[in-house]
Amino acid sequence: MKDETPARAKSAEPQPEPHLDTSGDSDEPAFSWLTPAGKGSGSAAGSSASPAAPSPADSPAAASSTAGGGSTVNGSIQPESRADRKAAEAAAEAPGEDSSPVFKEPLPTSALQVRPPEEEVERRNAQRESAANAKPVAPRVMQVLLAVFFPLVLLILAVRAVTSPLFLWVEYNRPGFPGDGYGFSTDDRMTYGSYAVDYLSNWSGPRYLGDLVHRSGDKLFKDGEVSHMADVKLVILSTFGAGVLLVLFSIVAILYLRKRSTGGVRRGLFAGSIVTLVIILGLGTLAVLGWQQFFTEFHRIFFADGSWTFSLDDTLIRLFPGQFWIDAGMVIAGLVLLVSLVTLVLTWPTRRRRGLAKDVAAPAAVEE
Question: Distance (Å, rounded) from C-alpha 309 to C-alpha 317?
């Protein structure tokens, strides 16, 4: 019993304060986590105004109470971990009932929650619907070009079919074709006429016809005839060149429409066939009403006056009389008319071709 008394006396003596090392502390204010929002400056001023006031942390009880949860720095309890300090700061920044409201910057996406005026909403909906219902311009342009090119291509192909030795042979050998009153036989016509037709499609010069002679040694074609054939050759080659370009453009338009517009090729060819029929029927009517006037006006479009008129004994008139040109015009019109009619039938906008399925009636129920 005597030995325990000194020990108790010793334990009652105050323990010295532990040495605190603040070298590892952060630069954060020591009291910011404990200061309520809007009152940090006042509490800090009060604490600095009374440095000599005794602090409860100086007592051994306060030191023992902070031993488990944190450390005491300048008389305040500082949480040990950074997470604890952050939680304390969040709790301190929460506005209380008696504190002034704290300004907070709105979120970046907060403007998306603001609904525009009804007029603006209706305008945007109308624009969106108009853009959805609007059809592209390029497919429509391609359809129009295809419809315009179609009759021109048909006419050029028909002209090419007529300017061939095959058509000459059919004409010279058909019953009722007028003979030559100046001595050309059918064989002579076929030979000399083939030279003239070949000259229109080859790249030879005027000597190709100018050097031809009769059996007697005289020139077959006069200079005026050779000059006119040179003019005809220029027109024919230009027409054929334009036809090649039109065919290429038509192929490009067809390939484009097949990829970009469902039914665009059919619609373009259908419109082109209608245009072709109108042109052929119009020109055919003019030719029937006055062939001589029609033939004269046609030559005036491409040739100078006086350069395409010849006498009846000239070689060109003996090889290609008036009946030859009437037959050629009829063949050209017939070929174009036939192809355009076939195209019109094949591209007629039926319900199936337009993609509209017919309404199939459901079978009637059988009564038991």
Answer: 9
Return the closest-CA partner of residue 242 out of 123, 152, 333: 152
Nearest by Cα to 150 from 334, 278, 275, 259: 275
Nearest to residue 317, comparing CAs of 198, 231, 228? 228
Beta-carbon count within 10 A of 174 CB: 9
CA angle 206, 210, 214 (to 5 degrees): 155
* pLDDT of 258 above 80: yes
**Which distant-in-sequence residues (6+ apart) come within 8 Å of 225 by Cβ?**
209, 310, 314, 315, 316
Query: What type of residue sits at position 281?
Result: L
Q: What is the pTM of this model?
A: 0.62
The DSSP bridge partners found for residue 77 are 72
| Strand 76-79 versus strand 70-73 pairing type | antiparallel
Three-state DSSP state, 78: strand
pLDDT in tens, 83-128: 677 667 766 655 554 455 555 555 555 555 566 788 887 888 888 8
Interatomic CA distance for residues 274 and 43, integer angstroms: 96
The dihedral built from the CA positions of residue 293, 296, 300 and 306, taken in this order, carries a sign that is negative
Q: Phi/psi zone of residue 78: left (φ > 0), alpha (ψ -120 to 50 degrees), beta?
A: beta
Kindly give, in sequence order, each residue whose CB lies less than 8 Å from that of residue 231, ignoring residues fewer than 6 positions away.
Answer: 302, 303, 307, 308
The string of pLDDT tens digits covering residues 321-347 is 999 999 999 999 999 999 999 999 999
Torsional class of 306: left (φ above 0), alpha (ψ -120 to 50), beta (otherwise): left
